[in-house]
Amino acid sequence: MKKTTEKSARLSERILESFDVLTKSERLLADHFLEHPDSLVLHTAAEISTQAKVSKATTARFFKRLGFPSFKTAQRMARVGRDDSKYKKNVYSEPVPNLSGRGDLANHLASDVQNLIRTIEAIRSDDLKAAVTYLSRAEKIWVVGFGDNYPLAHFARAQLIKVKPDIRMIPLGGFSVPEEFASIRPSDSLLALAIGRRTPTLRSILQSARLAEAKTISITDLASSGSPELAEVTLRCRTSGLTYFDSLASPVSVITYLCMAVADRLGQNAVERLRYIDSIHNDWGDAG
User: Fewest beta carbons less than 10 Å away: which of 60, 69, 130, 191?
Assistant: First the structure.
């Protein structure tokens, strides 16, 4: 019985499992709770309805659709085992920019740990397996990231190129994206980094990849719907930061896991490629 109660208290899991069948208004509530997971504990149903810009009836219907008898039941279950003292401070207050010292560093660490925990709790194991399968079987892997996502995409490519020979990066400096992307095939997979603001070009690339029958994987944040009609697999990461900036600890961890799992799936082929790369470094006299 305890196991059932603990699982029922995970609002984020229920939201992610039901996201595709939610109405437009209910998705506003889903986005609100995924971005502010403590809101259920801190606020009344009326306050949450106002913050999410939906009606009270929508809020009541939302929780019943997720399998809770009522909002009060969901809130009571979410509060089980929590330390109420930690919620006395308004989590929506303005951030304090002048952070300094080890105490603030500890708070930063604690925040990133929570991001990691909640991300891993929410990601479905079958989605992870599918992502690893698509990436490991792909003839070519296309890694896409614009703006702030470009460093994440660059990191993903830097890891994947160590174990697979054909990893394409978009955007590629000085080259038009459509001309570069014309080489995509059904045997390819595309890994899209979509944390925070998403560009129309990214959506166009995902649409073209689906039309080409390539496998599509998106790594995004909790506030995004993840464009389920465009990405066959969506991996959502919690990115809440202490002040003005999002935390990228969870996306980097998920990318690292995927690359590690792909290398493990490729087995001896990955090992031989890594050894060959090391031999080239040694031949060229690169410092270790």
Answer: 69
- Measured CA distances, 104 to 86, 101, 109 (Å): 16, 6, 9
Question: What gap in Å lies between CA 102 and CA 76, rounded to an integer?
Answer: 35
pTM for this predicted structure: 0.67
Q: How far apart are CA 70 and CA 63, in angstroms?
A: 6
User: What is the Cα–Cα distance from 147 to 198, expressed in whole angstroms?
Assistant: 9
SS3 216: strand
Residue where the block lists tokens 């900036």: 245
Residue 118 to residues 36, 112, 137, 237, Cα–Cα distance (Å): 12, 10, 29, 8
pLDDT tens digits for range 92-144? 444 444 555 555 778 888 888 888 988 888 898 999 999 999 999 999 999 99
Task: Count the residues in the chain.
Answer: 288
Q: Between helices 71-79 and 56-65, what is the axis angle to 10°?
A: 60
